[in-house]
Amino acid sequence: MANKTTELFNLYKDIGQKVHHDCGSQSITDILNSISLECIRYLKRVNKKSLFSQIPDKKYFSFEIKKIFSRPVNAELWLEDVDFLKKFFIKLRGADLRGLSISDITKAFYTIAMGFCCFVDLNKSRDQKTPGTFFEYLIGHVFARVLGVNPRRQLEVLNLDMKSTLPTDFIFDLGPKKAKLHLPIKTSTRERVIQVWAHQRVLDGVYGTGRFRGTLVCLTETKMDRNSLEVIEICLPDQWRLYQMFIAQLTRVYYLDVPRRYEELNRVFPKITVAPFGQFFFELEALIS
Amino acid sequence: MANKTTELFNLYKDIGQKVHHDCGSQSITDILNSISLECIRYLKRVNKKSLFSQIPDKKYFSFEIKKIFSRPVNAELWLEDVDFLKKFFIKLRGADLRGLSISDITKAFYTIAMGFCCFVDLNKSRDQKTPGTFFEYLIGHVFARVLGVNPRRQLEVLNLDMKSTLPTDFIFDLGPKKAKLHLPIKTSTRERVIQVWAHQRVLDGVYGTGRFRGTLVCLTETKMDRNSLEVIEICLPDQWRLYQMFIAQLTRVYYLDVPRRYEELNRVFPKITVAPFGQFFFELEALIS
Questions:
Q1: Are B217 and B289 in contact, with CB atoms under 8 Å apart?
Q2: Are B194 and A197 an interchain contact pair (Cβ–Cβ within 8 Å)?
Q3: Which residues face B63 on adjacent strands?
Q4: B202 close contact with A: CB closer than 8 A
Q5: Chain A 210-269, CB below 8 Å of chain B: which residues?
């Protein structure tokens, strides 16, 4: 396995090199394609251990090698159909996913992200950073590819007598007279999510309310107990409502695996639109205008 | 060493038990006293390795056992005078430190906090959580002891048709017609500090601006390179200024080892009062009225 790990980590590092020059380039799509197919082929040969899901209507399993478990994987969102993924990558190369359904797009990105994360879980113990960075590369690339714009990771603050730079998550500037996107990307949020609203508040204050549309993209909120093999989702919907009322407004929260208790937020005040990631590709124009 | 480690960790766990019942009790002062003296006696026999300080007018060393290094320790703030500390603990037991200077109080708390942190660094690899929790216990205890009030860690939000609880850092409620204290406690802040301003903003929004006085207490912002043995302070003063202007206002930031570049914030707009921790005991009344 050492060779496979080295090979996949080298591909991952390749993206890290390229992402700073041209985050949306086809060559990154091609590397993601290679990584994804390798991970799926590898994971097809690994034992799938069923987990005890405490989440209504969701089934989870974990890849397992000699008592080493991957993070939990949503059985409905996990695709093993290599042919489908090959076709998906051809469409992503063309930067146009609109022929596909919201559900298929979400599943494809879930599988690409989870495949690599689970590979790392099984082969590098205690490595949380690599999966998180990979997920940032993946989502950042997709936005750059679809929007045709490279993101920035810091902004100039020019404010009367004050001049400094503000480090942020990805920012996509689509030119004058359009809203800009503020894109935080997280594999999971937990209590750290307040940072996202706080960054949005600073952007609103410095540049004008709503000029940056806060668009949070997350993988999942699942948590697995390695002894009992139970899976739960850690959600703080009431906190989110307070943040949305008292800190700033996020425009969208996209999940690859939408947590059950955050779905409700679409239906109560203050409205927080929580949607499967695939929906982004169908409402992109509305989001930036 | 295994015995000493077990003994000290048991004392530490004792505090964890007691802190929920009566955070300011004399019995906690006594345990802190025992832990502190044990740590100092232990560290007196350990090699001190001088570090290359990149911070103007500050000298640092690291305790070292067989190439295992503790976090950097500020040589000026580290007390080895066991007699002084014994007297200090007698005063703390009486909940009145006013006979001492700001500088002596700050050094005493620095030594108590750092002694345990360095002990853990040397005896438990990769354990960041225990030193952080110990520091929370220490500072939470001191506030409870001096204010004569137990802190809360969540607040009820009762707001028209909304009812929920808001988890927060320590909150000290001094009764009606007084300001309340919002007390986040961190061994270091880095980029996570934005959470503190964001929590303050939620409190301002829910309960009224300024009703909670934001009082951040930190140990240090030093970072040591284990290869070159260089020590730097990681400071983001321009970010802090933006947070203070655009998110919320913190009333005080206390450090046990005040970072050089945050001292400047006392002298520029927007004013952020950054002070050595000892100062708290001399301005307490002003802070809550």
A1: no
A2: no
A3: B48
A4: yes
A5: 238-239, 241-243, 245-247
Q: Is A210 left (phi over 0), alpha (psi -120 to 50) or beta?
A: left
Q: What is the pLDDT along chain B (289 residues), one digit of tens a residue?
A: 678 889 999 999 999 999 988 999 999 999 999 999 999 999 999 999 999 999 999 999 999 999 999 999 999 999 988 999 999 999 999 888 878 999 999 999 999 999 999 999 999 988 889 999 999 999 999 999 999 999 988 888 777 777 778 778 899 999 888 999 999 999 999 888 999 999 999 999 989 999 999 999 999 999 999 999 999 999 999 999 999 999 999 999 999 999 999 999 999 999 999 999 999 999 988 888 8
User: Rg of the Cα trace of chain A?
Assistant: 19
Residues A73 and A115 sit within 8 Å (Cβ to Cβ): no
- Under a CB-based contact definition with an 8 Å cutoff, are residues B82 and B262 in contact? no
Answer for the pair A112, A137: CB distance below 8 angstroms, yes or no: no
* Residue A274 contacts residue A250 (beta carbons within 8 Å): no
d(CA B50, CA B73) in angstroms, rounded, equals 10
Question: C-alpha distances in angstroms, B90 versus A9, B97, B174?
Answer: 57, 10, 25
| ipTM for the complex shown | 0.90
Distance between CA atoms of residues B43 and A88, nearest Å: 61
Query: Cβ A166–B239 below 8 Å, yes or no?
Result: yes
Distances (CA, A) of B17 to B6, B10, B78, B92: 16, 11, 29, 20
